Amino acid sequence: MSATLSIRLAQRADAKDLLKIYEPYVTGTAITFEYEVPSVSEFADRISNTLKRYPYLVAVEAGQIIGYAYASPFKSRAAYDWAVETTVYLDVNVRGKGFGKQLYLALEDALKKQNIINLYACIAYASSSDAHLSNASAIFHEHLGYTQVGYFTKCGYKFDTWYDMIWMEKMLNEHSANPPVLLPVTAIF
């Protein structure tokens, strides 16, 4: 971690700051397929719901929240307990400085301690980059050891454009016959 970056669990009270980070991705990019910016209250609920089971981390530099990362269920059935979907967002003004990598590695460390095995990233993908989407997220995930395992053609429509979606995967732990039980996030923080 850089000397100026600290990473901690998110709180409901962070919702307004996190929403400021997320809003430009909703309104100006196809990185998220969400059309409307959620309310602060809805975003706070998202944080609380995630923290019931998984880590929701924020990165703070010089007293300012500059990014966040969290895990969510890959699927809701018990057999999927060892698999999660991962997400990371950075303030658009701090991208390219390594903060996203530090935040994601902290998330991976927490998930490994919870006994999570499979990480999945659902990534909007452009057959050719445009003003709303480059494929930087896929490249970022590849550098972190994710591999592409799925490709869905023109499954998301935003800004009058059809976008593809890819799924990328990374394994944190070995797959054993009797995997250790999933620990709640409260057991590791």
TrEMBL record:
The superkingdom listed in its UniProt entry is Bacteria
* Pfam families reported in the protein's UniProt record: Acetyltransf_4 (PF13420)
UniProt KW keywords: Acyltransferase, Transferase
> Which PANTHER family does this one have?
N-ACETYLTRANSFERASE, UPF0039 PROTEIN C11D3.02C
Gene3D superfamilies recorded = 3.40.630.30
List each copy of the N-acetyltransferase domain by range: 5-173
InterPro entries the record matches = Acyl_CoA_acyltransferase, GNAT_dom
- What protein name is recorded for this chain? N-acetyltransferase
Q: Which SUPFAM superfamilies match?
A: Acyl-CoA N-acyltransferases (Nat)
Keyword Acyltransferase listed? The answer is yes
- Give a GO molecular function annotation for the protein: acyltransferase activity, transferring groups other than amino-acyl groups
